[in-house]
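Revision sheet: structure tokens.
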Amino acid sequence: MSHYVEFYEIAKTFPTPAGPQVIVEDFNLNIAEGEFVSLIGHSGCGKSTILNMVSGLIPATSGGIIVAHREIDGPGPDRGMVFQSPCLLPWLTAHGNVLLAVERVFPDATRRERYDIAAHYLELVGLGEALDRSVKQLSQGMQQRVGIARAFATSPRMLLLDEPFGMLDSLTRMELQEVLMELLAHDRKTTLMVTHDVDEALFLSDRIVLMTTGPKARVGGIVAPTFPRPRVRQQVLDSPDYYAQRDVLIDFLESQDRSHRPQASSTSPSHTVAEVALNKSLTEA
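Predicted:
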């Protein structure tokens, strides 16, 4: 498989009251087309910063990011993003939120075609009977399904997931992991996911990238789960390799010097900027 995404010597610095802080430095990674890669590491190590840079919502301070043989210089419809919080427009229905994104990406389609695209992906995530419900009438899990449907409905070639199930209870989290796996089985998009959940990373990923503790975080190792696809959760858990690979991830995380971790506020502005930028891009004329 050829490289679809290339990170080359990426660095990102944010201003702080104490002076510039280097969050990520010398970050190098290649992702093959159709591959599912997870980033895992301690809070504040720059995982979401990496995701927001490849989305084009924030620029790298130095280095380059190549997506589909082109250096990115901003957001684009070729990259769909799902945030930890659903990031929906509360005055619209479930269908309206997805339709708004579809209209932006497919302006030449007929009104009926755009309507049907939005409805189709909501049906795929199990919301076929909730198209006309307002956001406030949806549970948190249902809202996140809308976010996933919106990302797929715009037909991006790459999917960016920023802890998409992190705010959900365990049962809903597992259910939406299965929904995501089923969607990707039929439409194998290149996927980059940020997660704190070791078990989630093992279940979903082709490769797991371990990030060192910041500041100046970088790739500290890569683990490639050996479980065949399509994956069935119980079969993965029963695999003799599962707990050995899980231990490798946990041992790495425990080996990082937590005393040098930056406060969460050092990277939180990038996530906030990203969410604001997404809604702004959807609502601007």
